[in-house]
Amino acid sequence: MNAKISFDRLREFIACAFSKLGMPDGDARIVAALMAEADLQGSDGHGVIRLPQYARRIRAGGVNLSPQIKVVRERAGMALLDGDNGMGHLVMRRAALMAVEKARNTGIAWVGSQFSNHAGPASLYARMALPHDMIGLYFAVGNANHLPPWGGLDMLLSTNPIAVAVPAGEEAAVVLDMATTVAAYGKVKAKAQRGELMPEGWMMDREGKPLLDPKRAEEGFLLPIGGYKGYGLSLIVGILAGTLNGAAMGREVIDFNHDDASVTNTGQAVCMIDIDAWGDSAGFKTRIDTLVRELRDSRRMPGVERIWMPGEQSRIKREDYAREGIPLAPALLESLDKLAGELGISRLLA
Amino acid sequence: MNAKISFDRLREFIACAFSKLGMPDGDARIVAALMAEADLQGSDGHGVIRLPQYARRIRAGGVNLSPQIKVVRERAGMALLDGDNGMGHLVMRRAALMAVEKARNTGIAWVGSQFSNHAGPASLYARMALPHDMIGLYFAVGNANHLPPWGGLDMLLSTNPIAVAVPAGEEAAVVLDMATTVAAYGKVKAKAQRGELMPEGWMMDREGKPLLDPKRAEEGFLLPIGGYKGYGLSLIVGILAGTLNGAAMGREVIDFNHDDASVTNTGQAVCMIDIDAWGDSAGFKTRIDTLVRELRDSRRMPGVERIWMPGEQSRIKREDYAREGIPLAPALLESLDKLAGELGISRLLA
């Protein structure tokens, strides 16, 4: 039976934990709000479930709690931020806000990061475009390599995600948030926890045969979407988010699941497109409404009850969870209780 | 037995055909060079094989031979071009050159098109970044819908391709050029011509079952890469290249294989990233060299002889074909001879 927690309580708990860990209160509140928002939209592999890991890394000295985030390169349409090894949420929130400001003038702006860290779900930062009637794009180098080059055995690439958020008028925004692998590694871990097998196509073993047992995940690799195409896409996302920014890519990527102390030099990038530069955003949003309805109203294959837009299931979760509370599995709640005990703060559920 | 044609002769033949069809000589030379370049790099579904179709469309009045390509919107980092229903090659070449100029100042620039037309392989325009030490991105709405929304039956989306070109130092540039479907529609047509079956995963029928016979292609759909992920990616590419530009998307897309006369209002977009804005392009290219070598030198799966970089096979073809000539299949040569006869120009092979 899952417990249900309000967004406000979850955010408060996370902020309190970070404060106790030594993070300045203002920063703790910002990171907590973004992590709780991840859970609110159902990105549960990237929300509060990461708190024990972040705490471990902070205690190991792997994160700078008082980063001086600096602009190291800048032009009218771009900036490169040095995150000073701070929490990725702080770095990428600043990057997104900066890109919005720049895009107002130039029509499009791109802000990348070096020396950032894991920042939660990609869609959080792409979505920051929406209140400004902009389209947001986000690219990141994942924080552990699980993917070899196509045909290879050495895990040199990560699940390098892409997110794109597009505002609509009466319809909900279209929000794509996808790893360039068939399954994100978090989904494999969830299958293992539940004692289930993986479907064919998620992973393969070192002989190229399907790997179905998630407990054997370390013996194989994630599969890229579309075979060699997803390999290429993961590589390109890694170049745009990592290599271009002077951040880690390829062999340089630190596996932050197994290493709490090394500086990850995580690279991410956000790009904002000011729709008004192309004409008028109201007209654009009406055209998106029309497109969404055309797709949704398509005739369906046998057995298909509904055609989903990218991001629509997250939006429904956001509405449901805001009303009814965010469900947290017993094992997660237990690990958060343990952390609360260690930190001497109130448990999530009083 | 394939005939082999030099790049120069192929370009001359195409330019001559367009001139005879009424295209101004300068434009004919530009389009011919880009089409011949497509064949030279092995993008043989998008090169001279399209000439008979383009000729048919020109004669049907479906293309404006004297377009006034206009900038309809502009800011420091962006422009929107109205292609005036001219050949897409002319519109997107202009877009790419304009984006390069703008990116020199702003660091990144994005130029989109409306009222453009089919422009050949996506990589042609992304690659225009390379001589300027820039990264080039290209997005396009395909010119025929072959993809329903995930779970749907109505073909509302196209193969909407993405191309990205990244300069390297001593290594060849990394060039990704991919449809968001597992197979491009041209590959299905090629299988049908050769009387071969398609592998499972390329297409499905209206019940969701694998479709293997390419002669039955009209009874089914192309499959997106990664299932619902590729559906989302195709939709997003279509929004960026089509909807944002006020170009055709969804139901508005004209199937240019079956309709020679209607204005297609094709939308495309090119984005140029000036690497020097991020630091120094020489250092970047060295880092790409290192990354390419790491990937190439990965241990390999049993039976795999070589690990390929995106774009590497095209580069090898470009070198081979420049030396030995471009191979053209007998059926293609026959269709070009027929066209030459109709136009009263010399055949490709004297």
Explain what the structure shows.
By secondary structure, chain A is an alpha+beta fold. Chain A has two domains: 1-59 and 325-350, Hypothetical Oxidoreductase Yiak, Chain: A, domain 1 (Orthogonal Bundle); 66-181 and 224-297, Malate/L-lactate/L-sulpholactate dehydrogenase, NADPH binding domain (Ribosomal Protein S8, Chain: A, domain 1, 2-Layer Sandwich). The first copy, chain A, has ten helices and twelve strands. In chain A, the strands form three sheets. The first copy, chain A, has a seven-stranded mixed beta sheet with strand order 2-3-4-11-5-6-7. Chain A has a three-stranded antiparallel beta sheet with strand order 9-8-10, with no helix packed on it. The first copy, chain A, has a two-stranded antiparallel sheet with strand order 1-12. In chain A, a hairpin with a 4-residue loop joins strand 8 (203-205) and strand 9. In chain A, helix 1 runs antiparallel to helix 2 (25-40). The longest helix of chain A has 19 residues, at 88-106. Chain A starts with a strand and ends in a 7-residue tail after the last helix. The mean pLDDT of chain A is 96. The interface between A and B is large, with 79 and 78 residues.
Outline the fold blueprint:
2 copies of one chain form a homodimer.
Chain A: E1 3-5, H1 7-20, H2 25-40, H3 51-59, E2 70-75, E3 78-82, H4 88-106, E4 108-116, H5 123-126, E5 134-140, E6 162-166, E7 174-178, H6 185-194, E8 203-205, E9 210-211, E10 220-222, H7 228-241, E11 266-274, H8 281-296, H9 312-324, E12 326-328, H10 330-343
Parallel strand pairs in A: 3-4
Antiparallel strand pairs in A: 1-12, 2-3, 4-11, 5-6, 5-11, 6-7, 8-9, 8-10
